[in-house]
Amino acid sequence: MKRLLALIQGLDLLLIPGVIFALYMAFQYAPRESTMGDVQRIFYFHVPFALGSFMAFGVVMVASVGYLMKRELSWDRAAHAAVEVGFLYTTLVLLTGPVWAKAAWGVWWTWDARLTSTLMLWLIFASYLFLRTYMADDPRLPRFASVLGILGALNVPVVYYSALWFNVHHPKPTVLRSGGLDPNMAVSFRVSMLVITLLMVSLFVKRWLLGRLEAERMLLEARIEDQEDR
Amino acid sequence: MTGYFRTVAALVGKDLLLEWRGRETLTSMALFSVLLVVVFGFAFQAQAIDPGSQAPGLLWIAFTFSGVLGLHRTMAVERENGCLKALLLAPIERSAIFLAKFIVNVILLAVMEIVTVPLFSILLRVSVLPCLPELALIAFAGTVGFASVGTLLSTISSGSRLREVLLPILLYPLWVPIVVASVELTGYALTGRPMWEGTDWWTLIVVYDVVFLAAGTLLFDVMLEE
User: Fold this and answer.
1) Contact, A76 vs A68, CB < 8 A?
2) Beta carbons of A134 and B219 less than 8 Å apart
3) Segment A21-50 mean pLDDT
4) Which residues span the membrane (chain A) (predicted)?
């Protein structure tokens, strides 16, 4: 645990200049987009946050299935940590998206499939976090949360492909395919994608370890109460 | 395999008999949906409701708000007097319990919907007679998805302090894709547009129905470990 924490702290030291570098790449290095102008630069954050949240919810799926198979609380805490990070990233997607939409479409929000399904994903994991807070001291919580986590993560492909399946205003996903992007833009995008992904890893691992500390603290508290009773 | 289905049939029979003797769940669901339709009537006064854009949404609000009451009840009755423990002690597959509860929920929801639609049609002056078969098919497809994920999640809400407050919070976000598709297709039906124009929506409903039913059958076991 100590070694993992040291590793993550090392990563954090890299992330501080990394984030500044990503900001420089997005706002200085990347060329101005010809039709949309500067507002397009939000793409260097919006898309990595979206892909990052999908990755986090992928971890939720793996960790939830892992808990149900192994029944070790460490898996459950991993799922919880991944949901929190994924939820944060989805929130950032939902905040950066409208800023761009207002400039590009003239409205903050439209009910197209991409936006609706992203909002749905956010609501699903909001209810997941609600369940976790509300049932915090219930021994059945890990099982219930795992099932809800699996059901929620099943929706990720739908959110990703919704822009391809349905007629939407939202730009089609181009990132996982090659071509179309100016090389300087592509470099800037890769930098911010890398930085935002590593940031997610750092947040996730720290939240996971924090969950373990919380569990240890609860054990200690229970033991103290036990002794006071005696 | 026949033994499995006999078990499911016996469980469904038990629940339906229980419901027939008490009629608590159906009465509360139907009454609530009647109240909702009346509230819609007040809200819209004498204005005509647009069958393409407004009526489908209102109809599905009535279905889902009333439906969630029933979903909670069918599982909550098992928590009383230790019935659930007895069920779990019985030498039957857990998935049979899920399927039985799911079927009972579909039947109860269908009855509630059958009560709601004529009243909705008369009070809000939306003509449903020409498209009744289509409407029934859409309602069935939407209800299957609602009942499958609802049955699974009602095991959480029925054993919790918050009870019926918790179920909609957990259920509605997961239910969004199906309700969106159902509302769209209901709009097609009410305005007389051919169903094949909504193939995408049908695909969405069917995929979610299958995924939720499979997830429910597989995960129900986990929910009921005591």
Assistant:
1) no
2) no
3) 89
4) 12-30, 42-69, 81-101, 113-131, 143-166, 186-205
> HSE (CB half, 13 Å, CA atoms) of A202?
17
3-state helix, strand, coil in chain B (%, to 5): 85, 0, 15
Of B173, B180, B215, the CB nearest to A150: B215
Do A96 and A211 form a contact (C-beta atoms < 8 A)? no
Task: Point out the residue among B160, B170, B215 whose CB comes nearest to the CB of A127.
Answer: B170
What pLDDT, on a 0 to 100 scale, did the predictor assign at position B46? Answer: 64
The Cα angle at residue B102 between residues B222 and A113, in degrees rounded to 5: 85
Residue in chain B nearest A164 by alpha carbon = B200
* Cα–Cα distance for residue pair B26/B114, rounded to 1 Å: 12
Closest-CA residue of chain A to B212 = A151
Tell me how far apart the alpha carbons of residues A4 and B30 are, in angstroms, rounded to a whole number: 57
Write down the domain spans for chain A.
2-31+41-229
Average pLDDT over residues B186-202: 90
Instruction: Kindly give the interhelix angle for B132-158 and A141-153, rounded to the nearest 10 degrees.
Output: 150
Report the C-alpha gap between A181 and A176 in whole angstroms: 12
Give yes or no for residue B69 having a pLDDT over 80. Answer: yes
Question: In the predicted model, is pLDDT for residue A179 greater than 60?
Answer: no
pLDDT value for B117: 95
Across chain B, mean pLDDT equals 90
Q: What whole-number distance in Å separates Cα of residue B140 and Cα of residue B113?
A: 10
- The answer to whether the CB atoms of A123 and B170 lie below 8 A apart is no
The Cα B211–Cα B155 span in angstroms is 18
Give me the mean pLDDT over the B174-185 stretch.
Answer: 93
| Block residue for tokens 């709601």 | B116
Chain B residues within an 8 Å CB radius of A165: 200
Strand, helix or coil for residue A33? strand
Rg (C-alpha) for chain A, rounded Å, is 20
What pLDDT is attached to residue A40?
Answer: 87
Looking at residue B24, its pLDDT comes to 87
